[in-house]
Specification:
With about 325 residues, the chain is an alpha/beta fold. The protein contains eleven helices and twelve strands. It has two domains: about 45-155 and about 290-315, Response regulator (Rossmann fold), CATH 3.40.50.2300; about 155-285, 3-Layer(aba) Sandwich (Rossmann fold), CATH 3.40.50.2300. It comes from Gimesia fumaroli.
């Protein structure tokens, strides 16, 4: 029995040592695994737009989705929008939701140039890259919030002036026109109004009335009917976007002035292209909506690769579109 115990004890020691060595090996392997660099993941970019009921933003979404499909190895895309361009609280909520969902970048066409800035500041503080497209954020509010957010988009004033100049070439000095403005707290709405005004002033054409239809077709139709009745000598309606131009066109027809009152717009949506071909709308401006979000996405991807890159605005093209251009 004594000899048996002498043999058993060394064997137990051997098993214990083997177990300890095995644990050390597993610990070492675990340490190696934890020290290894995590697998790189594709950045996730959120596109947040204004009204999805507006054809311009539908075109923007399709352009962004087409770009992502062609670059599916480079990034993931989440597309969002609000039903009504006046629903600022919902757009703010979308920004917060995208940050909570861990997106790496937000490309946003803000419904308001001021109201979205605090939410976007919080997104920046959370480490999210933010690119502003379409409607420029208010510079004073950005300064107050102490953040820089680059703007990627067209010179809206210059685009509206091109449309206004073309309309003026079809009118004569002293003629009266009316203007349908966008949301007055939106930078692009203000700039388009200023572009129209500059063109009319240069041609000595009188703006008889100017009111905000808040980018909406139905509101534009109602306002235009009222304004045409109040100003029966009006020769043209300048609408700050194409949805309002279509509403104005319907008002002109209902007022029995088709062919007498010209209509111009801004955005170059499909329905207005057709109306221009048919001679019902005189002109619009093309800010290349199918590429506008793409320009912003590409800038965001560059900043994700180089976080220390200098932030700067980037101007995108805007072109006059007439019947001659659509032949």
């Amino acid at each position: 029995m004594y000899e048996f115990r002498r043999t058993l004890i060394p064997c137990g020691l051997l098993l214990l040592c083997a177990a300890i060595m095995g644990c050390d090996s597993q610990t070492e392997q675990s340490q190696k695994t934890s020290d290894a660099k995590p697998e790189s993941k594709k950045p996730k970019i959120a596109l947040i737009m204004k009204s999805l009921a507006n054809d311009f933003f539908s075109t923007m979404a399709k352009g962004a989705e087409t770009h992502q499909q062609a670059h599916s190895d480079d990034y993931e895309l989440v597309v969002n929008g609000i039903k009504d361009e006046r629903d600022l609280s919902r757009q703010v909520a979308l920004v917060e939701e995208m940050v909570a969902n861990g997106v790496d970048a937000i490309v946003i066409a803000p419904a308001d140039s001021k109201a979205l800035v605090p939410a976007l500041r919080r997104a920046r503080e959370a480490g999210v890259v933010v690119i502003n497209i379409d409607n420029k954020l208010d510079e004073e509010i950005l300064a107050t919030e102490k953040i820089e957010i680059p703007f990627v988009g067209p010179d809206n004033k210059a685009g509206a002036k091109k449309v206004g100049d073309y309309l003026a070439s079809k009118l004569k000095a002293g003629d009266e026109v009316i203007v349908l403005e966008g949301i007055r707290t939106s930078f692009n709405g203000t700039q388009r109004r200023l572009g129209f005004e500059e063109a009319m002033k240069a041609a000595d054409i009188k703006i008889a009335d100017s009111q905000s239809a808040q980018w909406e077709m139905s509101m534009a139709n109602t306002l235009a009917l009222s304004m045409l009745s109040e100003h029966p000598n009006v020769k043209a309606i300048l609408a700050a976007n194409d949805s309002m131009a279509l509403g104005a066109l319907a008002a002109v027809k209902n007022n029995g002035k088709a062919g007498e009152v010209a209509v111009v717009g801004f955005d170059n949506i499909a329905a207005v292209q057709q109306a221009i071909k048919e001679g019902q709308i005189l002109a619009t401006a093309d800010q290349h909506g199918d590429q506008l979000a793409v320009f912003g996405i590409e800038y965001a991807l560059n900043l994700l690769k180089d976080p220390n890159a200098k932030l700067e605005d980037r101007e995108t093209p805007v072109d006059l579109v007439t019947a001659e251009d659509l032949k």
